[in-house]
Design a protein that fits this description.
The chain has 239 residues and is mostly helical. It has one domain. The chain has 9 helices and 2 strands, in the order ααβαααβαααα.
């Protein structure tokens, strides 16, 4: 398994689109954090979560990365020699999951740390409280979950462009429409419930959503189901 993970890591870091995606995510975080710090008011306290909006949005890019990790291999038929070399396909998928989620988690930690440094350096009334700390953890967890969900979608549709469009449409179109038309549906929308972990929501969460903790648990349950469906299909369909 270690050799398989090492092999997937080499693939992950050698694909140009992966590096471009990570660069865009990092550049967006830098831009938003600096702008927010410069515009911070001296009249009130500026929290870390006031500077991490870019990190929260960058985490969404990790979903596209999750789709690409598997979708690109199906697109260019490189998945066939991979499965030929390792017939137990679930091990390949597990190795890919470990690589992509670990990379996304590590990058999220670096981006949050950068926002902390920017706040400490540029904002005089900068503060990090308990809610900020919870949101820091939430950003990392959401990055892991969203990238895993993207991988699951990529395994199901096996087309990177289609998978990314489905992922973004579900998050920004379908859930927005459902929550607006039927308020009671909000508690069953995984993206909205999971994404609230990344910002300064109250500990009780939005009235229409689950609590921050409950929403996070529900989000990861949905992620697990989608990833399991993708893994099942990858294991039973022709490559």
């Amino acid at each position: 398994m270690v050799n398989l993970i090492r092999s997937e890591w080499i693939k992950f870091r050698s694909v140009r689109s992966t590096l471009i995606t990570l660069f865009l995510a990092g550049a967006f975080v830098v831009l938003i954090a600096v702008i927010a710090a410069v515009q911070a008011s001296d009249d009130g306290v500026t929290h870390l979560t006031d500077l991490t909006a870019g990190v929260s949005v960058a985490a969404l890019i990790f979903g596209a990365l999750g789709v690409q990790v598997l979708g690109q291999e199906y697109r260019f038929n490189t998945i066939r020699p991979t499965f030929t070399a390792m017939p137990r396909r679930w091990r390949v998928l597990a190795a890919k999951l470990i690589v992509v989620t670990t990379a996304c988690a590590a990058i999220s930690v670096v981006m949050v740390a950068f926002c902390w440094v920017v706040g400490a350096a540029l904002v005089g009334n900068f503060e990090v409280d308990g809610v900020d700390q919870r949101a820091m953890l939430g950003i990392v967890l959401f990055s892991i979950g969203w990238s895993a969900l993207g991988m699951g979608v990529g395994a199901i549709v096996r087309q990177p462009v289609a998978g990314i469009l489905i992922l973004l449409a579900e998050a920004f179109v379908v859930e927005s429409l459902l929550s607006g038309l039927v308020e009671s549906s909000s508690k069953f929308l995984p993206f909205l419930n999971g994404f609230q972990m990344t910002f300064r929501a109250s500990e009780g969460g939005d009235d229409q959503l689950r609590s921050v903790l409950g929403g996070g648990i529900y989000f990861f349950l949905v992620v697990a189901v989608v990833w399991a469906i993708g893994a099942y299909l990858a294991n039973h369909r022709d490559a």
